[in-house]
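note to self: dont lose this again. the chain is below, predicted strucutre after it. 174 aa total, dont forget to put it in the shared folder this time
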Amino acid sequence: MAAKVFESIGKLGLGLAVAGGVVNSALYNVDAGHRAVIFDRFRGVQDVVVGEGTHFLIPWVQKPIIFDCRSRPRNVPVITGSKDLQNVNITLRILFRPVTAQLPRIFTSIGEDYDERVLPSITTEILKSVVARFDAGELITQRELVSRQVSEDLTERAATFGLILDDVSLVSPA
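---
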């Protein structure tokens, strides 16, 4: 009699463990300040961006890709030439974040490491084009103008990649 009771309890426990494992693999969390893009093995990257909270997915078919959408800093050092052919070392500090509505496009066209791929190249491009308009002395005396021009050009260029620049500042011209 007791053996049958323990056998039925064991079966019930095993059934609950399997059910719990399936439910656990069908849930995922998106933390505060983050967004998720769903990759479906049959339909590809979904166009819907998932907000914060706990969400369901189809196990082994769908996979969430979590993106940090908070402002993050990045320092980009650049060596460039001025109008009078002087070498100038400039470090640019950028606070950036992705446009949440464009996360599926960012993931499919650039990848999860979009900041590593995009920011150094566009920063170098913009800094070289702006600094080449000024003499070495003008870079120091007209620092605000240079900083504003770099910020405007870089913000416009970053928008084409789905990035928002919250702040751009020249840290160390030398």
